[in-house]
Design a protein that fits this description.
- The protein is α/β, with parallel strands linked by helices.
- It has eight helices and 16 strands.
- Strands 3, 5, 6, 7, 8, 15 and 16 form a seven-stranded mixed sheet that branches. Strands 11-10-9-12-13-14 form a six-stranded parallel sheet, covered by helices on one side. It has a three-stranded antiparallel sheet with strand order 2-1-4, with no helix packed on it.
- It starts with a strand and ends with a strand.
Length: 299
């Protein structure tokens, strides 16, 4: 099958298209024909060598995937060939990713694709959605909390905003001035465009999706600060102990998110689409910054 892979770490140009053998489908696995894979920051960090991961080359990148089941393992229940599904595969752990025509992985990593949106667009949901859902579970905020979300118009931030609002919380956002019209549509209240403009000690929690450690100044004494970025985290202060949240595979939690999309309670944003053969260009453009919505690769 065709796949986008790397033989060494480096710039976008190390991505190449080649043929690889499809892995065997184990008893607990499903195989899907890929409709789309999404490009995430972790893919760029893996490709560049930024992350200290012991890669076995050639390596197929990619975490997010949407597609149609073509084969199920002998022990799989709940899925059948022809089903439309989405999944998140922790590529460094599994040893293979989703930038390919076909993906084989444990059925427990997948959920039914949401209805009401194109199957390709569903690939924008898994990693960002699971990151958002899991970090909010860790926060365990009291009802009606006031929360600031940095990077509120980004892939993870916009889902955090929507989940917080659906949970009855008051949400403000820190984002670029160019995103001013986006946040109210997601349910956010006030919008800030600079750290200097943030109110001090005003929020029960700050959810930092943009790597802005200085935003801790907006947390009330004894409040909560949680981040997802690889940037250096702020030091503990005023009874606030910063936490870092790492995403974990979970088809069960992903099903909660896909149901919310189907019920139009959660929106996912898709940006540019590239043929799989243009994976290197997609990485280059994504790495240059300024994009909004998930970048998709279409086999």
């Amino acid at each position: 099958m065709k796949a986008a892979m790397i033989d060494r770490t480096g710039g976008p140009d190390v991505l190449r298209i080649g043929q690889i053998d499809e892995p065997e489908t184990g008893p607990d696995d499903i195989r899907i024909r890929v409709a789309a894979a999404a490009v995430n920051p972790v893919d760029l960090k893996t490709r560049s060598g930024f992350l200290p991961i012991g890669l076995s080359f050639p390596t197929v990148l990619g975490w997010d995937v949407a597609g149609v089941i073509s084969e199920t393992g002998s022990s799989v229940t709940g899925f059948a060939p022809g089903d439309r599904v989405v999944g998140m595969i922790a590529q460094p752990v599994r040893g293979h990713g989703t930038y390919a025509e076909s993906v084989t992985a444990p059925a427990s990593l997948f959920a039914p694709a949401p209805t009401g949106i194109p199957l390709t667009d569903s690939a924008a949901l898994p990693l960002a959605g699971l990151t958002a859902l899991q970090l909010l579970d860790k926060l365990a905020l009291p009802d009606g909390s006031a929360v600031l979300v940095t990077g509120a118009a980004g892939a993870v931030g916009r889902i955090v905003v929507q989940l917080l609002r659906s949970g009855g919380h008051d949400v403000d956002g820190l984002a670029r001035a160019s995103d001013a019209g986006e946040l109210p549509l997601l349910g956010a209240g006030r919008m800030f465009t600079t750290v200097a403009g943030l109110p001090e000690a005003s929020y029960a929690a700050v959810v930092d999706t943009a790597g802005i450690a200085a935003s801790i100044r907006s947390v009330r004494d004894g409040g909560r600060f949680i981040a997802i970025d690889d940037n250096e985290q702020p030091a503990a202060t005023r009874g606030i102990t910063p936490r870092k949240s790492y995403v974990a595979e979970s088809g069960e939690q992903l099903a909660v998110l896909t149901a919310a999309v189907s019920d139009k309670q959660l929106d996912v944003a898709v940006g540019r689409r590239y043929p799989l053969e243009e994976a290197a260009t997609a990485h280059k453009d994504f790495g240059a910054g300024g994009m909004r919505g998930k970048v998709l690769l279409i086999p």
